[in-house]
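question for whoever is on the cluster today: can someone run the full assembly for these? two chains, 557 residues total. i dont have access anymore since they changed the login thing
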Amino acid sequence: MLPYEMIAGGTFVATVSTAVEISLQSQAPPDFFIMRNITEWGLVTGPPAAQTIEAWWERSMAQGTARFINQTSSATAPSMIAQALAANGVFTYSTSNPPVFPGVAATAINATTGVVTVSSSATFAIGDTVRIVNPAGMLQVGGLAFTVTAIPDSTHITLGYIGVAGAGVNGTTASIVKFIPSRWTPPAKIITNITKATQAVITFSTAHSFIVGEEVSFRVPSAYGMDEMNNRLGIVQSTTISSTVNSITVDIDSSGFTTFAYPASGLVKSGPSPAMAVPAGSGPYPGAVQPFTPVQDAFDNKNTQLIYLGAGLFGPTAGAGTTGITTGDVFQWTAFKYSQYNGN
Amino acid sequence: MVLNSAAARLGQALRETQDALVRDQLESTASVINCVGGLNGDLPTEMSISDVDDVVTVLQNNSGEYITQMIEGEDRFGTSPIGDSYGCMLTTRMIPVLNGIKGFVRKFQYPNVSETLATEWGGVDNVRFFISEQGSVTPGASLLGNDVANCFVAAKEAYKVVWQAGGKARFIYLPPGYNNDPCMLRHTAGCSFYQGSCITNDLWIQNLRSTGI
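^ ran it for u. tokens below:
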């Protein structure tokens, strides 16, 4: 075997129902990928139920699929059962040229909580970025991107950073389209709320990467109320990212500004451009005794070749067509590139 | 001869990669203006003359300088003068939309084409349009789920590229015998470069989003 055929390898710790991203230093997409569960492999004293011990993907297979082996719960003589995963398995792609995903039908969007009723939540993972397409009754968020912050069950996802974008009226039918955003940093972000305060708090629809000390410029058309913020520069004083909050606090006193609000659904086709925050440079780090300017906010191309292991590979219950692991399991993985490929 | 040919292709790939990197950066970071003057019922709509005027107004309000100078009218049939202009970089998929804009002047209708680029498609009011098959398109990103063209309208010095000395472009050729090639069967050739990009003034670059492509 030529050594450059095995292009990368390593280990990771898995969490049940949580996807894993592996960034490849090699910018060539792998042809074959395999991962093995070190923790559960042949464990005779342990697993209370069947466990997935191996999964693999090969370039002739469809993206998002996988083949895997479940080890039965029998401690003394476990059987190994070959299985196939039809979706949410192994993907390989470059984040600068990502795959496109089909839309999933939605029937209700809660304007306050951001909970969306979908035909199936199986293809989504927490942290995914999705676009809401043609949401009836809620057109003001049509085409905008949101981060999936929770997946309550098999027919619901939560867009927890919806802020006031819902405009108080629930949406009905829509299509929810997952997509892979570019990783150029720092990216511009869609604003879902701005508070009226001595230091304004700005909430974004997708997880932001702004840092303390970064300079941010705002674009707020008059359709969103607080157009006093338009073209203003602010220096980030603090940032918060959690499952429910995704915001920055800036040194702009918005106390006397007009209240920020999304336009009503019926007004959207008159065409407001989105309210946005764009990176605008580095300011002095707030409160620093010796003044300095942060450099982590410099423009940086963080696009990379990825192996994306969907949450379907780390299911809670091993069975026919389903995987089962225990949170904390350590997986070994290896990626290969064929020197020669004689495919179909 | 074969190596020279490979070097030429690599040179093209290198320059296209450099363009793609700048494109990706502008796509991620530039301010957005939706086209709204079209008639297709989407948001954004297809680009119209009022949208071009809007983005020119925004850049003028932001003290953005024009990039190209006026092309004065001349006594030639079928030509039209072109005003001082900002530059718009966009996908070739926008060609039908551009041709449909009221008052759009194709490059061959300029009074003088001596100071134009091969990629220039034409101009209207104070914007000249430069097309590329690598222009930015966001799939399914409109209100109705249609593809959106990201048309970057730039004023002078809105963004820049930083080169590192010695790393602007490097051609790398290895003869047979390298990289686990004990039987000396394989040549390899490649290229590399270092590049940093940044927006120098976020008010001087606007992403005019359009559907209709």
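summary bc i know u wont read the tokens: Residues 2-210 of chain B form one domain. Chain B has a mean pLDDT of 92.
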